Amino acid sequence: MKLGLINSAWVQSGKGTAFGIRETRTIGFDSIDIFADPLDLDARERKLIREECKAAELPIWSIACVAVGLIDFNPSVQRFHLDRCRRYLDLAYEYEAKNLLLVLGEYIWERQVIPPAEQWQLAVRHVRTLGEYAESLGLEIALELEPFQLSLLNNLERMIAFLDDVAHPAVRANLDISHCHLAHVPPVALRQLAGRVAHVHLSDCDGVVHGDLPPGRGVVDFVPYLQEIKALGIDGAISIELEYSPDPERIVEWVQEAYEKTAALLAQTGLRG
To answer: Hey, what domains does the chain have and what are their CATH numbers?
Structure first.
């Protein structure tokens, strides 16, 4: 698998997109994931991302999209987010990415007022529609497991049930190791997703709250997860997800640390290649 980085890690640097892409290559990553909204990108920034990644010989593996409005109870909001997600897929196609990393929303009003099953079915219908569009572009959708109390996909059982309900070959799962840890998903349980994983995220956490820390700064035991991921035979990338360095002035060292720790873990488990 490739070792990648989600470029949102560099936001705190305040040095611009090109800086982050170039540093990603200098540090030694094989690929990059882009967290950018096509509705916010002007023509210059859109071109800059493409050309800087090409110059750095960094293939764009995934485009990250948070689309909580897909399950909003207002039809107009749903339509907007469906169109927005199609624009994301167009961007992924333009950048020759492999997948769209899609984060769904949460049940509103604490699962009261609106029956939770209605929001679930909204998500199923809209994601199936997006899966059809993704397939037409030769892309996949990788759904994120979010370990929060009211998230639709907040544990392995719900992820599997959702994939079963969507029932589209272009719609698959993203495995985020720290999210699995926080959701109390044991490594062996990942076998239930055999043939259904499109992408992998890696970061550490304190075992209580979402953290996106470099490996070794939290409590996650990565090796058992990585061994199970290797057994799944995923032809893809493991992308480090980092947010909020405690010292933004030393962001390069923060990313370097995450790279070195992860590269060592992948070497130990024979995953990088």
So the answer is: 2-269 (3.20.20.150)
CB 85 within 8 A of CB 130: yes
Angle at which helices 116-136 and 75-94 cross, to 10°: 30
Residues 6+ apart with CB under 8 A from 264: none
160 phi/psi in degrees, rounded to 5:
-65, -45
Phi, psi for residue 227 in degrees, rounded to 5: -65, -40
- The residue type of 138 is G
35 close to 6: Cβ distance less than 8 angstroms? yes
The residue to which tokens 């096509």 are assigned: 38
Amino acid at 236: G
Determine the pLDDT at residue 139: 98
Distance CA 97, CA 60 (A): 5
Distance CA 72, CA 91 (A): 24
Tell which residue, 46, 138, 45, 48, has the closest CA to residue 93.
138
Does the pLDDT value for residue 12 go beyond 90? no
In tens, the pLDDT along 170-201 reads: 999 999 999 999 999 999 999 999 999 999 99
| CB-neighbour burial class of residue 113 (10 A; exposed 0-12, middle 13-18, buried 19+) | exposed
Helix (H) or strand (E) holding 238: strand 237-240
pTM for the predicted model, two decimal places: 0.96
Share of the chain above pLDDT 70, in %: 100
Spatial separation of the C-alpha atoms in residues 100 and 38, rounded to whole Å: 13
Distances (CA, A) of 175 to 46, 157, 258, 266: 28, 13, 18, 16
Token digits of residue 228: 């199970």
